[in-house]
Amino acid sequence: QVHVVESGGGLVQAGGSLRLSCVASSTIFSISDMGWYRQAPGKQRELVAQITRGGTTNYVPFVRGRFTISKDNAKNTVYLQMNSLEPEDTAVYYCKAEYRLGRTYEYWGQGTQVTVSS
Questions:
Q1: DSSP structure string for 4-51
Q2: How many angstroms separate the CA atoms of 5 and 25, rounded?
Q3: Which residue, among 113, 54, 65, has the nearest Cα to 89 in the 3D structure?
Q4: What is the CB neighbour count within 10 angstroms for residue 113?
Q5: What is the strand order of the sheet 77-82 is part of?
């Protein structure tokens, strides 16, 4: 059974840091592109950062320079280091594993809440 599980969310003051972790099943981690998304109340889910199975990273403009995505293949884990957090970063953060094998397969975690106080 495939699983994707996030952890590391919490409450932090503006300017602070958090590191999110996402563990995925070993059966999919090595063949998947991994992504962090977030969804704030009343808003659509949006991409934050991606890392391909080859290690190439991509960031959306509003987090570039503040957030860093990385992964540890030996632990089947992808991380999102978030620095200089702002109240606008408050959201539920989701991890997604995606791979293509004839068709696209997507697996989402349950999300982890990040709250940034001003």
A1: EEEE--EEEETT--EEEEEEE-HHHHTT-EEEEEEE-TTS--EEEEEE
A2: 9
A3: 113
A4: 12
A5: 4-7, 18-24, 77-82, 67-72
User: What are the pLDDT digits (tens) for 51-105?
Assistant: 999 999 999 999 989 999 999 999 999 999 999 999 999 999 999 999 999 999 9
**Residue 85 pLDDT:** 98
| Cβ-contact 82, 20 below 8 angstroms | yes
16, amino acid identity: G
pLDDT at 102: 94
- Rounded to an integer, what distance in angstroms lies between the CA atom of residue 22 and that of residue 36? 9
99 SS3 class: strand
